[in-house]
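User: Fold this, then the next.

Assistant: Folding the first:
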Amino acid sequence: MGMTLLWLGVAWDGQWHVDVGPDTFFTAPHLMFYAGSGLIGLTSLAVVLTTTRRGETPGDRIVHIAPFRAPVAFLVSGLGAAGHLIYGATDLWWHTVYGFDILELTPSHIGLQLAMQTESAGVVLALLSLREQPAGRWGLAGAGALFMASAEISFDGEVLGIPVSLLGVGGATAWVIGIVVGAGLSRRWLTATGAAFLLLLGATLVFPPFATRVYADAIDLRLRDNAVNESIVGTALPYYLPVIFVCAAGAVWMARRRDLTPRQAMLLVGAVAAPAVAVQSALFGRSAEGTPLLPLLLTVAAGAGLCWFGWQNAALLRAPQPEAAR
């Protein structure tokens, strides 16, 4: 719930910047995503305090911090939420000093985006620890979808002519595949993750433009004459990710039939799934000009490495399940 509020609030805020323009700190989109971040932070704090009080149980992955005992997943999500609040305070200072935001990419906004990605990763790991319950497995599918969507806006721009978004979304996709497979879940949960992304895509396409129009009318502001009137965040998301997840489910099935090791399977699936994001890069004109080969090679390497890394993350958090490890 917290991550969903955070994501839709951020998508709404981006829409507001484009369709309306002037933006102060105390706006409804800001309050919505800070409420989501606060919910994540309070949940993480409650779990840490509860774990500290009851003590460790076998199978827990606990980090000791002074008198506190923090499950790894909730430590990550809590640190992300804390970072979000710190950068939120920085954003308030920025608005106080410089007034309205003219550009979306301010230092405080970049910090908020990276904090959101950290929170999202923590939520994925937290729901991974609840995978034994049906609600936990569905939550993991939804959190995986949110993590990939967040990567689309957290990693933007180019570094040395290489589109960071290409590496970010491709790597996030590979990591989520590795997490789901490494959790020992059946391959249908890869398909479920793709379906969850499809639902998230629909919500992101509909909610931000609708909320922007309603909110602007409510506070007597007019949309710009050149308002896009379509979801700028939703249209930037990779539509075909559900197809990639169906293909990944098939690839995992084939790998098991051919008795590939987990490392071989994850390196292979990640090396193919991540560069598939380059299709969207080409469709939306984000390919690096003049050097398409270098971004492609980097995406293949990042995808293979992060898919295996995701499998390892899941393996570290789960109880020993030798048969499910494949």
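Now the next one, as you asked:
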Amino acid sequence: MGLPARKLETVPAAKAAGPAAIVPLKRATPSLAERIKPILNALWVNLLPPAVTVAIILAVWQIAFDRPGATLPAPTVVWDQAFDLISEPFYVAGSQDMGLGWRVLTSLQRVAIGFGAATIVGILVGAIIGQSVWAMRGLDPVFQILRTVPPLAWLPISLAAFRDANPSAIFVIFITAIWPILINTAVGIRNIPQDYRNVAQVLRLNHLEFFAKIMLPAAAPYIFTGLRIGIGLAWLAIVAAEMLTGGVGIGFFIWDAWNSSRIPDIIVALVYIGIVGFALDRIVAFVATRVTRGTASN
């Protein structure tokens, strides 16, 4: 006798639990003191050491030359006699009587033209030399000889060719700045990994695409190293060239101040030159860091 079939009761499935509610966490707002503290620490670390160094140099300078018959003026004398050059860098009182700010801008304009031309020509010719073995064998020895010629040695040649002071000074900047750009570009192109070249062949890139997508990015750290050296040399060359060519510019101002025995004016101009040269180097380094995403060294 079989057992009666047991009726199975269906048990309703458990109601699925809904998604847990997300409780937003309240972000802790740093206090004003906590936000200012990193800034103060950065200022303390980066500004205090050079400020102390400058103070020590000024103190030693003041002690050494603050006496009758000193050959160089003390810092307090420079401040008193050249205060107008410091406080009013952009005054204009005539074609040759203007502040150091305008003279620096005039020199920077020449540097921008000469250095820009050197950058374009240097990268293009450097890419050809780095890419072609025969071009490297033919041109590299010539460039190695030309780059050892001092910048001012080119000035008589440029004056004879251009018959004008302004393009001659720009040519001196160009011929001075082009060598580190050209040579570093060629070295960077030669050091492109073979894997990159194989990828370019697989993708069947043409010469222009290979130049833009493979060569320039791979050689960028080398190129920017050359640019940083080149901008420093260009700034040095323009000051020296303007001393000889005359006209408006920071270099001629120094030469004119020397002929007028205005030593405090020369010292102030040297400070301007140093600050501008440092700023140019920092600008190129900043662009290099952005373009190469940090692979170019600072």
